[in-house]
Records
---
Amino acid sequence: MRVAVTSTIWGGAPFQQVAEEARDAGYAGIEGVGDLAGNVPLARRVLADADLEVTAGRFFANWFADMYQEIEFDQLQRAAEFFADVGARFLITSSRPVPERMLTAGHVTRQRQEGLLDYQWTQMADSLTRAAYITQRDFELPLLFRNQLGSYVETGDELDQLIGMTDPDNLRLAPDIGYLAYADLDPLEFVRRYFERIAYVTLKDLDADLHEQHIWAKGSLEQFWEAGGFLELGQGDVDVEGVVALLRERGFDGWLTVGHDQPGRDPSASVQISRDYLVGLGFELEAELI
């Protein structure tokens, strides 16, 4: 297993700065290229200078709405072409977050009424199947699906439904274990159950006490972000160690990527904390002395 970090941790910082700080923290790869998306020559140069590999790009879409299909597939091809040109291993997609689900993310999952209808599930599964075929055929870039808070594929039932409606040889998974925990799922059980479909894992931690208080108060996902609910690895209550141990036991040889939604401290310090935690779990991440 190799370890990367998501460029989104740095917010809107220039990607050249992001790449340098990711390298200095000892990471081998990075997800996304920030403000250099679309600029192949410069992205390649910055990545080469930092000796970083692009693990994946990210592409959100509705997938279930026929009226958006033409523009979404056009954007998909543009994104896949760019990330293939900068050497990405994967393109990761999610159902696009929507306002009403952002307000209720993680709340009373079995009683929520704003889910997709049967024909929309069929549209989503068919669209993702077609999308995965296109990215693999035209760009040799496997498409992976990631659970996304505030979207129509967030809860355990929703993930099970989509997974059951798609071909494991066509669409594999890139679970975010912090988002699983926020949605009241056991990340360890999810990884164990769907291990054969998992190609990529995002490691993320959260404060369980704050999460419980937040859900009790019916707070929105944005309020949880602002309260600093997501934490550096090892600083919260997600069983990151258990997930890593299970992946090792099963012989997982893909990428682990460190994620963090809106870190409360300087991003370079934040990724160092997560790096030190992973070193404690036996990963060889050589931070550059600065």
Note: The first helix runs from residue 15 to 24.
---
Amino acid sequence: MKIGIIQQSCTADVQANLQKLQANIERVAAQGARLVVLQELHNTPYFCQTENVELCNLAEPIPGPSTEFYGALARRLDIVLVTSLFERRAPGLYHNTAVVFDADGTIAGKYRKNHIPDDPAYYEKFYFTPGDLGFHPIATSVGLLGVQVCWDQWYPEGARLMALQGAELLIYPTAIGYESSDTPEEQERQREAWTTVQRGHAVANGLPVVAVNRVGHEPDPSGQTNGIQFWGSSFVAGPQGEFLYRASSDREECAVVEVDMQRCENVRRWWPFLRDRRIDEFQPLTQRFID
């Protein structure tokens, strides 16, 4: 399967962001991508750097204007498209939601981000209600997609639940970057940890992983911090965690990466982790902590 990934910067001009996304999606589709994955909250800047109720006006219903735009694009280009939207479910009730479009332009399914961070410059709990759709793969014309969003990527349980339900790919739209007060050494440790934990999901489940991050500097509107330098480094890893592609940390990039889906079957035969799992001993995992 040929997978298109789009790593780009965003501005406050939503229409300009959409136009750039459309051009980049068209570019990777012209190169043969059948599945295209976008970064987290790609329509706008990463607005969670501050707590501001007015920014809730960026949210929209699903279906809504963005789903019409991306659905039409998927249909015209005959691609499966993974997007990431700020969902207005009801007044005062919002989600960080990945919406997947099939090649006919219909909504194949959606996933609401389950793990919601609350850290300096990442005040997502102010905006997003935790997801209530569980961890379930989305059926598309290119296969079963195990889609999660950003902070979910640090947790092995979600990846495992997707794999146990037949997911053929693990996909993570992302928005993560450097804190300016950290030393360069600490910044690099964090970026490598982010990459390593997701490659671990690939290995543990015998599945390819697609992680697409934004790139570039976005200032803090409040001026309380120096903003976020998103570290890019979007990548596709194979079922043994091997890099099939890794983008730069500081440039916009579009890439088409070919993934051998049959190799996943072979890897699972060589390393039969699902066969050897001691599921009879795992019940304590449902506890917050074992005192």
Note: DSSP finds six helices and 17 strands in the chain.
---
Amino acid sequence: MKILVTGDAHLGRYPSRISDSSRELSVGQVWEASVDWAIGHKVDAVVLTGDMADNKNSYFEAYSVLKRGIDRLVDQAIPVYAVAGNHDFDVFPRLVEDLQVEGVKLLGPRGSWSRAILHTASGEEACLTGWSFPQSHFRASPLDTFPVPNTDIPVIGVVHGDLDGGQSDYAPLITSELQQQPVAVWLLGHIHAPKWIPRPGAGILYPGSLQALDPGEPGPHGPWLITISQGGKVTATQLPLATVRYETVEIDVSGLSDLDQIESGISRNLQRRTEVLSGNYPALRRVIYRPELTGKSRLYRAIKRQQWTQLTHLEIESRELRGTVDRITPNVTPYHDLAEISGFSDPPGVLAQWLLDLKEARIPDELRDRAVKAIRHVLRAKAYAPLGSHEPDPASVEQLLIEQGELLLDELMSQKIHE
């Protein structure tokens, strides 16, 4: 039994950090490619795990794109089963109703579980049981009302929810509770990062967003193929049909002697990465890079101060794939031997010892308290008011102290060299 699974398409949105609006980069294009794959490989069903539409403003765009794909699937006798998510809780049920197409089943309307039986051409059967969002927020677990199936055929659970998210507003679910149910596999929506958790217990799949929409969704994207064997074994395979990818690339700049060499190194690294991606992911048309500079460098201050704006105009091509740079993150550290410098009692020596203490989590209480007080004062400024009240995060405070301390040490050592 072969089932194509996708969700979180958010039809109506377009990938960010892209200047043009080419149709081949749209979510709709990837949805159509997924339909092509399903028909070409004769899958037994297609399952949509919620948030296929983005919101009410995208109703007509989602309607036309979804209808074309669903019509083609149904024409090929491939049924479509779906649940509504928190973004399309009101839009998707209306879409299904307006489509007026047999072979499309909305599972769990209005927050109540419902079932449907899938009959395959080979005579196999499966029971699909699903739950849809009744409103945009739902703080209880859908499993609280889950009707335990009493059947000998494989059970496939379909629900849009927040897995292991604690006190979530979006139908919180717990991995252990899902795996304890007599279900062959759970197909989930809501989280945009693809994730497959195989047995023990029921398998759990987040197919992730169909098309990557922003840098927070790195790596390959696309629908997934779920295969259920006669013995009940479940396998999951991602189909990387997405045309857009966001990628962070670490580039070690240790040993490079000037900024020109670093810029050349960035270009060479991204060119190689683009060639690898174009060979391994033929559907890709655009990759948006965020290079991260790492290593120890004598150019620490220059790297930290450099704006790198010229590299945002860099374009790299390999076959049909084009790469661009969104931003560069300088995570380098100064080329200084802290242990050696800390052996002196001068200001660089005292600062070097503080940095060693910071990196080993031995932070002086006075230094920590003063830093927290200063950062809290900044966060309470009017400019930060729209973000709400936030207390300084301890890990962020420590990292900020280390970064600023390294900048200061680099400056002190530079002055010492020139004396």
Note: The radius of gyration is 26 Å.
